[in-house]
Amino acid sequence: MTSTTLALHELHDGGGVPLVLLHGFPLDHRMWAPLAGHLPPGIRALALDLPGAGHSPLGSMAPSLDAAAAAVHRTLVGAGVANGIVVGMSMGGYVALALTERHPGFVDGLALVDTKASADPEEVRTRRLKIAHEVEMNQTVDPVLAMPATLLGATSLQRRRPLLTTLETWVRGQSPAGVAWAQRAMADRPDRTHVLQQFDGPVSVVVGAEDAITPPAEAEQMERAARDAALTVVPGAGHASPVEDPSAVAAALALLHRRVVRHR
User: Fold this and answer.
1) Closest Cα partner for 24 from 74, 75, 79, 89?
2) In this structure, are residues 122 and 187 in contact, taking their beta carbons and an 8 Å threshold?
3) The pTM is what?
4) Is the distance from CB of 29 to CB of 9 less than 8 angstroms?
5) Burial, 173: exposed, middle or buried (Cβ in 10 Å; 0-12, 13-18, 19+)?
6) For 150-183, how does the pLDDT look when each residue is reduced to its tens digit (9 = 90+)?
7) Assign residue 39 a region: left if phi > 0, alpha if psi is -120 to 50, beta otherwise?
8) Model confidence pLDDT, tens digit, residues 202-237
């Protein structure tokens, strides 16, 4: 593991315990910008680019969500952030759970958005490794360019068509090395349901009602596993609910922030 520092972006001014926003795959911190505009005054929101995504380097870091979590923690502590409410969408949720397992004292609250705690089944893992190989061999992100259509729910594809172009632009902006790294890291992740079961802080589970990648049934399993969880199902949204309905997800995060303040 290297001492790679990740790109850190201040998306919303505020004080107290901040929201730490971890993006999904194959995106970067830009996916959180619309949501940040819907946060109530006074809530600080920081977004990171995960290794190899956006403005963050990969260095010589081996593909591992534990390595990503360590880099997130190192970057935040280096920036003077001693604790936070960790919010992870999709791959960001996997990193959030790894961070909670590795540095439980850092995590005051946890939001798991369109993600799951379980590991990939073997066929999904095999597909991830195949895509990683293709991306690396051809030095192009073309193998994941179809993903935006799967990230959006049916309602968004019908009524929010411009989001498809936005997501495609973000995907095209990623590096092949970063995309391959992320696929391998996700393929090797373990089941972290036990992390939820052991975490004693407030948890928010958010899922798009039309999420076909990590459907509401996965969110319900996480809600049951956690000690203190609230579930929000976002109508008319798919796997990219923070992009599809940023105001609804921002409201869920604001509620989590209030719960964490009371808990502390």
Assistant:
1) 89
2) no
3) 0.97
4) yes
5) middle
6) 999 999 999 999 999 999 999 999 999 999 999 9
7) beta
8) 999 999 999 999 999 999 999 999 999 999 999 999
Give the SS3 label for residue 48: strand
Q: Are 6 and 75 in contact (CB under 8 A)?
A: yes
CB 264 within 8 A of CB 17: yes
Q: What is the C-alpha to C-alpha distance for residues 68 and 62, in angstroms, rounded to an integer?
A: 9
Model confidence at 263, pLDDT cuts 50, 70, 90, reads confident
Q: Can you tell me the distance from the alpha carbon of 67 to that of 193, in angstroms, rounded to the nearest whole number?
A: 19
From CA 256, how far away is CA 22, in angstroms rounded?
16
Length of the chain: 264
Find the largest Cα–Cα distance for the chain.
51
Q: For residues 226 and 223, what is the distance between their CA atoms, to the nearest angstrom? A: 5
Quote the CA–CA distance of 13 and 201 in Å, as a whole number: 24
